[in-house]
Every structure is written in C-alpha cells, then in structure tokens.
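It is worth pausing here to work through a concrete case rather than discussing structure prediction in the abstract. The textbook approach is simple: state the sequence, then state the predicted structure, then interpret. We follow exactly that order.
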Amino acid sequence: MPNYLEIVRLHEAGFSLRKIAKIVASGRSTVTRTVKIAQEKDLMYEVLSQWSFKEIEEMFSLLQTKQVSRYYVLPDFQQIAKELVKPGVTLQLLWEEYAQDCRLEGKVFYQLTQFKKHFNEYLNKTNFSHILHHKAGEQAQVDWAGTRPQWIDPMTGEIIKGELFVGTLPFSNYSFAQACVDQKSASWIDAHVKMFEFFKGVPTLLIPDNLRVGVTKHTKNELVLNATYEDMAAHYQTVVVPTRVYRPKDKGSVESHVKHLTTHLIARMRHYQCLSIQEYNHYLLFALAEFNAKPFQKKEGSRQSMYETFEQECLKPLPTYPYEICHFKDAKAYNNSHIT
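Step two, the predicted structure:
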C-alpha cells in the first residue's frame, strides 16, 4: 500500500510530485491523487499523523475515494446558525467546538475551510444569510418618518399633525413605531423608553441619524451627543453610535422600514378618526403587531418569529426603573451665591 502519510509530508516539505513518487516508490497518479485529496479536504500532515492506519487508508484509497465524505461528521448547521447570531460568537469558535467534540468521540471532522464551505451552502439553501450581516440584539436603528401621522382635536375639529418615531432591530427587522407631538427632546426620549419596553430589552448599540435632538456635533474628529440623550443611553447601558454624515447605507434597515411602515401603518390608520394622540397610538399598536407578524416573502417566518426565536434572548435586560427625562444647563452663580 502507498505511504500516504509520507506523500503528504514530502509535499508540504516542498518536494515535486515526480520526486515524491520516486522516494515512496509509487506511481505519479497515486501521488497526484493523494495530494489532491489532502488539499481538497484541507488535511495537513500534523492532523493526519494523529489518525489510525485504517483511517488514512480509507481516506486515500482509490476504491474509497468516492465514498470519502461519508466518514466525515457534519455539524448541526441549524444549531450553528442559532449560535452564530449571539454577540461575540464567531465561526472560528464554533469550528473549534465542533472539532473538539469530534476528537472526544473519535470521529473525523472537517477542517475550517471545508467547514465554512458547507456552512455557506447551508445558508444559501435556507435563506438564512442575514446572520452574516447583523448580530442578534447588537443594535437598534432609529429615525423620524417623513410622512406625518394626524388626529383630530375634539374641541375645535382641527386636524393636528404629529411626528412618527420608528425603531427597528436590523437582525430580525422587528420594528416599533410611536406617534409624537413633535421632534423635540422630550418626545425623542419618551419614544426610546417606549421602544425599549416594546422590545422587552435593550440592544448594545443605538444607531440614530445626525439629528440635533440626539447629536450636538459630529465631525471627522469630534462627536458630541445631546447631554440628555447620552444620559438616557447610560441609564439603559447602551452606546449611541450615530451614522456617518452623508452615509445613508449606515442606517439602511430603518430607512427601508420607514418606507414600509409609512405604507402599512399611516396609510391604514387613515380609516381611524382618532380624537387624541393617545388614541392614535393605541390603534397604531394593532397595526404594528400585524406588520411584524406578516410572513416574509422569500424565506420562512416573520419579523415576530425571528425576534422571539433568536433576538429577544440576546437583548440586555431592562433596568429596574424606566428613564425619567432631565435637562442639562450651565447655571450662573450670582454675587449672593445663588443660582436660578
């Protein structure tokens, strides 16, 4: 039988195929096939040297070449996908855990390159590739919608127009919306508090646009957040990372959902004759629940199911008490040692 282990070792040492064939006294075709299998399977001498004689023979034998894949243990890619969405978890870590489990059970495992290849094939078949772009619970993207909600003043009959706050978790696309009376700081902060309660948790990052209500100054070298907004973020132990100026793709998920929510929520709400902003938001929650439960068009599930299955457990817990808005101001001390 050819010395497959020696063939791999000599090839890694830089010997030509002709020279290897002469040293191990085997045909060129056997050497070529052995090297090809080792490269395709990402098998190194260091790994093969730990295998038994029978395992090496089954791997490289001409009669067994077509059946080689059946000796490898494929990981549970569905479980791998669920683990990968969690913060801090990487494919490298998951492969190391998979390889360690196979070693303990005496099974043959795929090397990292083949592991990634098979995993990517699984993602393409299951339409689950979004996990490569976002981590569950990592961020929430927030913005004001361009189209304004409206309700009626019961005393005057006047139509009052407000503002629509939108927040979305880009991993699951689970979304929140709330009508506000204006775009001032109090409304902005209150909408965030309600959003965290709706999500039943807090993401690691908040991604707003460069609105004055949230960002005081944002240049290449300096970022100054609104003091109240920064204080709220500290209360919920999250970090505000505004989008780069003139980089709309930084907040692509919420920009897309502003458009969808405008159509689904505000357009549907036109049939309701609401007499207050509280009544408007009451009915808005029903339309929002319908929006989140709507099935995806190109993959299984919905925003609601993706959120409940993967994302909710990855959010940080809510603090004991919700944030109460406060305002920061530089006070002047007078000659009598008092301030206003």
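Step three, interpretation. The beta strands are 139-144, 150-152, 159-161, 163-169, 174-180, 205-207, 215-218, 223-225, 239-240. The first helix runs from residue 4 to 12.
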